[in-house]
Amino acid sequence: MAELFNKQAKNYAETRPSYPADLFQFIASKTPVHDLAWDAGTGSGQAAQSIAEIYKNVVATDTSQQQLEFAPKLPNVRYQQTPPNMSIVELERDVTAHGTVDLVTVAQAFHWFDLPTFYQQVNLVLKRPNGVIAVWCYIEPEVNESVDAVFWRLYNGSAPYWASARKMVDDKYRSVYFPFEPVEGKDSTGPFEFETSRSMDLNDYFTYIRSWSAYQTACEKGVELLSDDVVKDFERAWGEDGNNRKVVRYPIFLRIGKIGN
User: Fold this and answer.
1) Does a structural domain hold residue 17?
2) Considering the domain boundaries, does residue 64 fall inside one?
3) CB of 1 within 8 A of CB of 112?
4) What is the pLDDT, as a whole number, of residue 16?
């Protein structure tokens, strides 16, 4: 997974969306204690910095040192590079001791994980009975009808270059095996829908597309997804309303559960 994002780590940090306050408020409301959170697959720390505003301490891990180098440096966040296949010994040494974590989060990376191994790790580090795991993904950006029409032609054409794990995102994490109990006040583990947005100009939007793993894979195969014709189509659609900057919206889908007894 790390290899898919190393080359475009800067693009990822610059243009990937942050997450809305109401998402973190909802998650935090389900953990009675806010001492320690583990943000797994933190990337360049988009989620970790918001979690750090609520939890006393955050350990944020990723397999990509290149992405971690772009993460914001905060006094209560400890960034840690971890191996792709982290052993229990490494988990305790580099992440945290058993039964010490109030919250485990995974933002837009859950689909890359070896889930049986990760679930074993989650069950070891979360406090019982109220430790919470929250994982979420965002799906394709929404701008307006004209821009979105060009985007979907591009996205559908990019299908051969996505790893199979991407299908979990397209499915909004609905059908993934998620062996945890519903949190208080909920009768299921979701997915629950939120939304984030950011202001972009067209160059920002293109940089976001270039941060895709599929974009890198296509380039390695000699295919430019943002071909001259595609760029011209985007320029035409983007310029229809005369506004250089636009609000780009990303629907978010959250699965959340507690470890129980």
Assistant:
1) yes
2) yes
3) yes
4) 56
Buried b (16+ CB within 10 A) or exposed e, 208-227: bbbbbbbbbbbeeeeeebee
pLDDT at 2: 45
Crossing angle (nearest 10°) for helices 202-210 and 228-238: 140
- Domain harbouring 136, CATH code: 3.40.50.150
pLDDT at res. 213: 86
The number of domains in the chain is: 1
**What is residue 148's three-state secondary structure?**
helix
Instruction: Please tell me the distance from the alpha carbon of residue 136 to that of residue 132, in angstroms, as a whole number.
Output: 13
Phi, psi of 62 (to 5 degrees): -160, 155
Helices (H) and strands (E) counted in the chain, each on its own, are 12, 7
**CA gyration radius, the chain:** 19
* Tens of pLDDT, residues 172-189: 999 999 999 999 999 999
Containing structural domain, residue 40? 2-142+165-199+249-258
**Structural domain contains residue 229:** no
Query: pTM here?
Result: 0.87
| Residue 206 domain-assigned (yes or no) | no
Distance, in Å, from the CA atom of 200 to the CA atom of 206, rounded to the nearest integer, reads 10
CA dihedral 183, 186, 192, 127 (to 10 degrees): 0
Cis peptide preceding 179, ω within 30 of 0: no
Separation CA 49–CA 65 (nearest Å): 17
3-state SS, 160-225, equals HHCCCCHHHHHCCCCCCCCCCECCCCCCCCCCEEEEEEEEECHHHHHHHHHCCHHHHHHHHCCCCC
Residues in the chain with pLDDT values less than 70: 1-16
